[in-house]
Amino acid sequence: MGLESVTNVDDLVITNPVATDLRSVGDNHLRIIKTAVKTLLENVPGTKDGTPATLTIVAGAITPTVAVQYVDTAAAAATDDLDTITGTNMYAGGFLWLRAANTARTVVLKHGVDNIVCQSGDISLDSTDMWVLLFYDGTNYIELFVARDPGRTIADTAVTLDYEHGSIISQTPTIARILTLPTTGVKVGHTLTIVNLATTVARLITLNASAGAAVAIFVNGSITVRANQATPTTPAHWDVVGPGVRGELNDAAVTISAPGTYAGTPSDTRIWTLGSTFKVGERVTIINLASDQVITVNASGGSTITTLGTAVVDLYALQDTPTTPAHWGGEAVLADTIDEVTDATGVTIDSVLLKDSAIQTDSGGTNELLRTIVLEIGDWNMDSTNLVTVAHGLTLAKIRSFSVIIRQDDSATHYSFPTVDPTVGGTENMYATATNINLARAPSGFFDNTSFNSTSFNRGWVTIIYAV
Fold first, then answer.
1. Which of 3.30.1370, 2.60.40, 1.25.40, 3.10.110 would CATH assign to domain 372-467?
2. Sorting pLDDT into bands at 50, 70 and 90, what band is 150?
3. How far is 171 from 156, CA to CA, in rounded Å?
4. Which residue of 147, 178, 182, 427 sits 20 to 30 Å from the alpha carbon of 464, by its own alpha carbon?
5. Which phi and psi (to 5°) does residue 33 adopt?
6. How far apart are CA 61 and CA 38, in angstroms?
7. Residue 291 has pLDDT above 50, yes or no
8. 8 A C-beta contact, residue 203 and residue 213
């Protein structure tokens, strides 16, 4: 009778049953086929019920029995090396999934020590959301890829990040922390997103390249970085491609390659370059948080789009792959002083030109660019003194108008000047000379009384509009 002993599929003999076998032994053949199929399917991920068995490392080795296995360290050590995977129960051409059995214990797959081959050096399985898929070629177990839950939280400590392309890593630091970007295994175009869940500057995250210099510094937001070369080691090897609403970039020259809002606090003059990867209509908002330094924003071709002090500038691409300032438009600038945008032309909003803290409206005539200054009058006892002068420091021919506000001693009321009271005689006057604004109150006039005689007191203000 042709009835073989079967555990695995390759134990089946294709010529069995033979022609002389009795029909009554057919059930035996069905049983061995079921045995082979069951063994095979137990080695296919997702086809076996229950929880994968946990294998404990013994002398650096494990012997898998199915295609999905949890691995634990010897004697529950904090970390243990896995050098060898014995293939007794596996087939050449098969696949093996491995995961750490416990997040508190790290299993390190050692590349090249015995029969484990990794793409980019050792792999540390340091949590239960991290898996490695291996291909068995009959001798070696070869890494195909590492997978991790794309959103994971790391401990409140300074760490060097391991690498999984596309990962989102979050931390809630209690103090300022330094996170170091990986080098090993990183390819061109690979990205990482780091989220800082803390909200105070004292708990910022400094994101360093592996060589030590900062790529980004940020709090209460996220930064996405993309490697522009393999095995990156310096900030120049990383592009910041996607911050959140409040991503603060490093205090250095940077290249911005994706739409978003970018903030920085430079300690010196810095150059931020907008890359050529933008599409028409995509926007970049840049915030300079420093009070005494400027950020120069350049197009990818090197020419300056704008220079801003403590300011917010909103720029948008006028065409795909922008490379020059002419390929960028500036819609708004908010600042204590308004800096020039694009070829020293300023920013025009609703037909009003804003440039160098001045305003020009498109209303016909000369269209002069006008500025406003406000000067304090200073001390003036109007009860005893009828004339004061206020130095304006301007060219007389540039002055277009001026007005005066007078304060009463109790500061409860402000009056325009001149003020004509029909019940009081006299005429008040004001006029400009080459150096001063002259203010003359009328003898026995409205201001000639003890309500306006305080000294060591600013009597009011002169507002002047002049041409730039």
1. 2.60.40
2. low
3. 7
4. 427
5. -65, -45
6. 26
7. yes
8. no
Q: What residue spans define the domains of the chain?
A: 9-42, 54-148, 151-355, 372-467
Cβ pair 342, 330 in contact under 8 A: yes
Decide if domain 54-148 falls under CATH 2.60.120: yes
CA–CA separation, 233 and 180 (whole Å)? 10
List the structure tokens of 165: 């392309």
Specify the 3-state DSSP secondary structure of 465: strand
CA dist., res. 190 & res. 196, Å (int): 20
| 341-367 residue pLDDT tens | 444 455 555 555 655 555 665 555 566
The Cα 221–Cα 179 span in angstroms is: 15
- Give counts: helices (H), strands (E), the chain: 1, 39
- Cα separation, 222 vs 175, in Å, equals 17
Whether the predicted model's global pTM rises above the 0.70 cut: no
DSSP class of residue 264?
E
> What Cα–Cα distance (Å) separates residue 2 from each residue in 10, 24, 217?
16, 13, 74
- Residues 403-434 pLDDT 10s: 999 999 999 999 999 876 555 555 788 999 99
